[in-house]
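Issue: ligand-bound run for N-carbamoyl-L-aspartate - logging full I/O for the record.

Environment: standard queue, default settings, no custom constraints.

Inputs:
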Amino acid sequence: MRHDHVITSKQLSRSDIETVLDRAAEIRDDPTAVADRHAGALLGLLFFEPSTRTKMSFETAMKRLGGDVVDMGSVESSSVKKGETLADTVRVIEGYADALVLRHPKQGAATMASEFVDVPLLNAGDGAGQHPTQTLLDLYTIRENAGLEDLTIGIMGDLKYGRTVHSLAYALSNFDAHQHFISPESLRLPREVVYDLHQEQERAQVREHESLEEILPSLDVLYVTRIQRERFPDETEYQKIAGEYQIGVDTLEAASDDLTVMHPLPRVDEIAPEVDETEHAAYFEQAHNGVPVRMALLDLLLGDEGGEDDE
Ligand code: NCD
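Outputs:
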């Protein structure tokens, strides 16, 4: 996958995914082995939307590979404020960096931007579209906690606007997972995603539910998401739904002892803090996995450029 853009999880085959996860596991076991591997390499960060984990874990990953970052900074302080187009911005920054990470509020922005650059461009979230690098760390966490074979997963919350959900659902179809989608009617998965999942998975194992109760006992993983308030066209619609689909310690009484609870974070009130103390909680581990997984991905994309001892 060297020199590829990473725009959507649809482009990732099972073997691509396994390559990244295996490399991430190696790196996590011995991070010092890659400490200077990309010395001198620079990663360009272009975040047009807020980010804590994604931006900081990319930055950490690049620095732990011996490289560094150049950061556009906030939209407010960049030339975007003067009306510069995204196409011009990426064309300029590709001249400064060996790879680019882009987060943008507009769905499709990463696809468009990638057409203007030759260095690898990684989509770190495009509106309600996709977030494929989050998916890789989600899959890593699932593999570690529950395994990817014969998986039964519940994905709950804002399935309409949640880009982490869209990316995860496509990627899981490579593993023939049983996917249960739990949401209010108004936040169901976009119909085109459901359609694609049925097309991609020979024996599609995709079910939609409005209640968690009926399905919870059968789940290996419960992936909870935040209601994407910033994407609601109407605040009153958000208010109607906010506060629904919350998980507390009492909710989990009906779950299997081995249930793994995940969340891409940030959470608002979807998971009560008491759940953090249970064996189920894997969301902080999940966020930490962002570093070895993004190290692995950057290493594979950058190849031996600026590095040593490439195999
Ligand atoms: C997610 C995102 O930005 O899509 N955050 C993240 O990258 N971990 C999820 C969210 O904002 O709810």
